[in-house]
Specification:
two-stranded antiparallel sheet; 1-acyl-sn-glycerol-3-phosphate acyltransferase; transmembrane; alpha/beta; 38% helix; 284 residues; single chain; Glycerol-3-phosphate (1)-acyltransferase
């Protein structure tokens, strides 16, 4: 019997039929590992931030500390974040930011573009998320209980006063929950009522689709590029609560138009939405 060695030739033999790659190399395993590290790393960074933020106590200025500590995460995952339109932020007045909400990765785009003295409005459950919840509380994040409408309305009224008296900006995800389907859910109107009540502008921010590099359903998480587009502010002076439904619809339409544009131009979320019958297309 003649034995032929292929090792010296630098050729790797094919694995025997039926042999599978180690499970820890599978795309699904990589996805779960990356998400576990992402969440764990944020919790660890929060532990480091808490004593620094505690010096001021609960203060919106602590958000600068969280932002500085989180900015590097995009490099760990090979995600390039491009910001356009940052000049649209009003220079010296309160306003309400509204943004689309795709996943927990929105944190990367938010930290990239977050203006000064701006804090998110978050669901109350986040307050109990260990070190992250305490860090967010120290940074002035506003928590609302969405299950108790009366409390949510009361909090929004207090926020309207805070906007004007303390020169604070707030960041709201008007879809109300994460949306993984490549489009935008209908907008809840709380953010728009808030802006009208305080008579401050609305600044829409659109993050392009993550479908080229991230998909929860497919358990896929690779490197990629995301574009964050800041749109011109929408004034609310002179508007009343009766104008809120039309205001919310107008802002959503403009954001959805830009979302489709930057998610298909090769610079945002790739060409996912170009596919015939794609989710983003079907929603219009």
């Amino acid at each position: 019997m003649v034995r032929t060695s292929i090792c010296g030739a630098g050729v790797n033999p094919s694995p025997p039929a039926g042999r599978l790659s180690p499970p820890f190399f599978s795309p699904s395993a990589k996805y779960f590992f990356k998400m576990a590290f992402y969440n764990g790393w944020i919790l660890f960074l929060a532990v480091l931030a808490i004593p620094v933020c505690a010096v001021r106590g609960r203060n919106v200025e602590n958000m600068k500390i969280l932002r500085l500590m989180l900015l590097h995460i995009k490099y760990l995952y090979g995600i390039r974040v491009e910001v356009r339109g940052a000049h649209h932020f009003p220079p010296s007045q309160p306003y309400v930011v509204v943004s689309n909400h795709q996943s927990s990765l929105d944190l990367l785009g938010m930290m990239e573009v977050l203006p000064g003295r701006c804090v998110p409005i978050a669901k109350r459950e986040l307050l109990w998320a260990g070190s992250a919840g305490l860090a967010c509380w120290l940074a002035g994040v506003i928590f609302i209980d969405r299950k108790r409408t009366g409390d949510a309305i009361s909090v929004m009224s207090e926020v309207a006063q805070t906007l004007l008296t303390q020169d604070v900006r707030v960041w709201v995800f008007p879809e109300g929950t994460r949306n993984h389907n490549g489009s935008m859910l209908p907008f809840k109107r709380g953010a728009f009522h808030l802006a009208v009540q305080a008579q401050v502008p609305i600044v829409p921010i659109v993050m392009s689709s993550y479908q080229d590099f991230y998909c929860k359903k497919e358990r896929r998480f690779t490197s990629g590029r995301c574009q964050v587009r800041v749109l011109p502010p929408v004034p609310t002076e002179g508007l009343t609560p009766d104008d809120v439904p039309a205001l919310a619809d107008t802002v959503r339409h403009s954001m959805l138009t830009v979302f489709r544009e930057i998610s298909t131009d090769g610079r945002g979320g790739g060409d996912y939405l170009k596919k015939p019958g794609g989710v983003g297309e079907a929603q219009l």
